[in-house]
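Incident log entry.

Two folding requests arrived from the same account within the same minute. Monitoring flagged them as a possible duplicate submission, but the sequences differ. Recording both here for audit purposes.

Request one:
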Amino acid sequence: MSTVAFHTLGCKVNFYDTEGIWQVFKASGYTQVPFDEPADVYVINTCTVTHTGDKKSRQTIRRAVRTNPDAVVVVTGCYAQVAPAEVAQIPGVDLVVGNDQKSKIVEHVERVRNEQQPFTLVGNILKTRDFEELDVPYFEDRMRANLKIQDGCNNFCTFCLIPYARGLIRSRKPESIIAQARKLVHAGHREIVLTGIHTGGYGADLDGYRLSHLLEDLEKVEDLYRVRISSIEASEIDDHLIDVLSRSTKVCSHLHIPLQAGHNQVLRKMNRHYTVEDYAAKLEKLRQALPGLAVTSDVIVGFPGETDEFFDATEHFIATQHFSQLHVFPYSARKGTAAARFTDVVAEDVKAERVHRLLSLSESLVREYAAQFKGRVLEVIPEEPLQWEASPEAPSFRPGQHPGGKSGFWLMGHADNYLRVAFPVPPGVAPESLMGEVCSVRMNESSSSIQYAEFISQRTSFEPESLPVLELL
């Protein structure tokens, strides 16, 4: 029996695609093995959002070739799409496949084996108009299940290569999404994360059917407990969506709404499709309809032309809008983007200092948002044993151990408002029986990173054929 190994770099969409590719290999009789072991086929699903993504992709490709020089090495994903000739020149690469042909990788592997020569199968993805179906009925190693609802992006932000790597918006058919959701629920997944390259743009290529309508249909899926929207632009939040969210019993009380910059001049230069005033108005409407809503966001610092004054405006805007967490990135020029030609660059040390300031602000925002839930009951889906980074004061913690030495085996997961919450497994309960299930907990300690709670009850249960056993202290 032939074997295949996978390595995925980048975003949730890539991880979904890899799971879908594996299902195609599995249906063709392949067995999956770990990536660091000898395999007949290696599939590397690459990322190109930054130069670091390119570099890591090349390193991973070379690692596969070293592990088994006789294997068929397949490279797909965004790096393969935007730089196919560069990828094909890496010694040992047999097959380079574009982002719109992933479902056909097994066929192409057989062609390589039969003809004993390498192939590059990458076209102009901007001409692709149909969503490529990849069926993922379950996820073996993830508590939350990603469900890809669209691909591509129409925005062409000046800092981003993604439209050239993923093409324009292509929405999945609603009936396919609902069928996929039912499969994931049947497999025991309690939370489904709606994922895409531009998730909030879902339906832009459909006739009057948008994300809000999809959420209404997902509300009817029996035994689906939570739905999370991976990301949505402020410009895509309209009154109908807000109304749907306010009536929903399944959509999480959390939205990730990228800001990128808090000054209109920088936003215009980025080719973002809103002003800070527009963004603030949307947040106000959302919070009126959804009290307690968690809003997380992305921010790029050091974009060309971002003066100290402009950055100060961003910092002030973020502080006044009370986000629940920030993801902060220093600007990195990407060859092929409009922003790469801008000459008013920001020094690297200035970028680093700005990143530090916003990360410090983010910690304060997490602490501020979390504090309001102290003493309240939250529903958490545990995903893993509590992990804690070692420090000079506390150099060693085993998974499941509380950093303060409190007794018990501790699990950690996300509440519906995206707070990371840890709690001890009650005596006599197997930790693995709670993994992936909805648990009611009472939060009794808040912080800027992990919130701590006590177990109250288990809300859901699932009896798969076997459960992985967690190592107890």
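Request two (distinct sequence, not a duplicate):
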Amino acid sequence: MGLESGTTPYTSVATIGLVGGSLMEGPVGRKLIQRRALPPENADDAEDILIEDEVHHKRSVHGYAPAAYQIVIAMGSG
């Protein structure tokens, strides 16, 4: 927008927006949950789902090299 060193104010404004959004999401989410009267009984089901995901998706060393290559390619092209 005509500023040679405009990255500094734009970066700070973006950071303020991210922090502001993060601070607002907690109270807004709580209000939405209370307004829609979502039942808390889903918490037990969510724990079972997480345990099932851990069983089905085991990590191994073989997946790290391709992921690292993809990250390097993405960083290089960006």
